[in-house]
Amino acid sequence: VVAAVVALPAARLLFVGAGQRAPTAPRSSPLQLRADGFSAETEAAVKKKPSQEYTMTKEQLERLHGESWEMVDTVLRGNKASTPEAIIRARYTALYYKDAKFLAATAKQDGGNKKEVYKQWSEILGLIPRDPMKVAEQLFFGGNDFDILRDVESYEIVDATDTEVEYKIKTKSGKVLHERDFLDADPKWGYVVAGVDFQKWE
């Protein structure tokens, strides 16, 4: 998902997996998961109760991924993704629930400021205010449509191989992000997004 924007190797996975207690937070706010959680507010809240874990139910994952929910659940339980498709689906789940840290962590880091990459995702997802200079620049010169990814509606895998995944993300605005990503094997996550073959709005 928007691999060109993101690239951080970071925190270990925050979802625990399906089967126990689902988060009660509304979808418009980040999930409350493990102590190294999704947002600064969530992280602070969870650290007060380090033994408490939050999970996603099978039903929640089925709503996002249908019959493929189990491959996502495996990743969200802290295991390595067995295929590129599994990590891409997990990234969509993170996008849906506004997890900037996971999106940044599961894209390959080729230099750059790690905090800045996380900040970019946080701005895109509406977790923090946009930089006023970036807003002004977008007004005068036009800009990308990635802000509308904070309200996604559905997800479709178009094609998946052992090195690439092509997918479409439909947003509530009606626009669709059509993207094909390259993935590399990774010792921590199984796979991470390494680059973008193509990316366009439809």
TrEMBL record:
Residues 127-202 form the MSP domain. Gene3D superfamilies: 3.10.450.50. The keyword Acetylation does not apply. Pfam families: YchJ_M-like. Residues 1-18 form the signal peptide. InterPro entries: MSP_dom, YchJ-like_M. It comes from the Eukaryota. Transmembrane segments: none annotated. Keywords: Signal. The keyword Nuclease does not apply. This is MSP domain-containing protein. It comes from Spumella elongata.
